[in-house]
Amino acid sequence: MVTRFKQTAKPRAGAAFTLVEVVISVTILALAMAGMIYGYAQTNYRAEWSSMSLAVQALTVQSVERVRAARWDVYSSSSGLTPDELGNGTNTVVITNIFTNAVLVPSSGATMTVTNVVKISTVSTTPNPPVRQIRADTPWYYTRMQTWYTNTVITYRGGS
């Protein structure tokens, strides 16, 4: 007995993906994945920069608070005490105090040395009490972007 196979219809042209469609879809997937990885890396860099800037800002504020905590009794006449721990600043003379601190770098775990520069100058001697400006600058270097940044805090203090 001879069995005859019935011929089936020709395969349809759209039944499978062509090589061009596969290459285009893989290219689109690769671009999307590259964009996501790039975005993640940039987010990581920004988070690192923000953490370093916040640490430096805390040191800058700390140096301003040290100066604000100093004794400045403009009405003191006792000879045993120094009425002014801030020094005698005028509009032209600037007193500079330099504090050096270490900041922990998040990505490497290393420390970075930063220097706080505090400048104290007299703004006004009239009206009473006198007023002084306290300015703290802390420059720091961000190695990933090869750029220097400076965090600054400026405040005023009146004599008591």
Show the helix and strand layout.
Layout: H1 19-68, E1 95-104, E2 111-124, E3 131-142, E4 147-158
Antiparallel strand pairs: 1-2, 2-3, 3-4
Q: How many alpha or pi helices?
A: 1
Q: Please report which band the strand proportion falls in: under 5%, 5-15%, 15-25%, 25-35%, 35-45% or over 45%.
A: 25-35%
On the 0 to 100 scale, the average pLDDT is 78
- How does the overall form come out from the CA principal axes? rod-shaped
Rg from Cα: 34 Å
Given helix and strand content, the structural type is: alpha+beta
Amino-to-carboxy terminus distance: 121 Å
Spans of at least 5 consecutive residues whose pLDDT stays below 50 are: 89-96
Number of strands: 4
How is the main sheet built?
4 strands, antiparallel
**Topology order in helix (H) and strand (E) letters:** HEEEE
Domains (count): 1
Helix content: 25-40%
Task: Note down, in words, how this protein is organized.
- This protein has about 160 residues and is of the alpha+beta class.
- It has one domain.
- It is about 30% helix and about 30% strand.
- The protein contains 1 helix and 4 strands.
- A 4-stranded antiparallel beta sheet has the order 1-2-3-4, with helices on one face.
- A hairpin with a 6-residue loop joins β2 and β3.
- The longest helix has about 50 residues, at about 20-70.
- Residues about 90-95 have low confidence and may be disordered.
